[in-house]
Amino acid sequence: MTLAMMLIISALLSIILMMISFWLPQMLPDTEKLSPYECGFDPLGSARLPFSIRFFLVAILFLLFDLEIALLLPTPWAINLPHPSTTITWTSMIILLLTIGLIYEWVQGGLDWAE
Predict the structure, then answer these.
(1) Cα→Cα distances 87→27, 30, 45, 98, Å
(2) By the 8 A CB rule, do 91 and 72 touch?
(3) Which among 57, 76, 53, 64 is positioned nearest to 100, based on CA atoms?
(4) Which stretches of the chain drop beneath a pLDDT of 50?
(5) Domain positions in the chain
(6) Separation of alpha carbons 23 and 8, rounded Å
(7) Considering the entire predicted model, what is its pTM?
(8) Which of 27, 57, 80, 115 is the most buried (most CB within 10 A)?
(9) Residues 82-95: tens digit of each pLDDT
(10) 53-110 in CATH: which number?
(11) Measured between alpha carbons, how far is 109 from 61 in angstroms, rounded to an integer?
């Protein structure tokens, strides 16, 4: 199969799937589907109520620690480098930084859900 033939098949398949995705949802519009909330019950109160800052703090802490953990993902491949002691040193420093950050957040009360 040539490259041109594969590109034509890919383009046709993409166009067909896009047309189906635009056509299919409009077949049977439902009153529940057209409502702004699809959770099964009528909305109570205003949607503009302020959230507790704790939700945002926990989300930011999760993202921060999750991104720092992602730094450890290449570690198994880095062990095969000519100087694995450098890899172990950097990995230990990242884990130490994570541990210090976790202890700091714990002491500051950032992990306490209820006050």
Answers:
(1) 57, 57, 54, 17
(2) yes
(3) 64
(4) none
(5) 53-110
(6) 22
(7) 0.49
(8) 57
(9) 888 888 888 899 88
(10) 1.20.58.1610
(11) 12
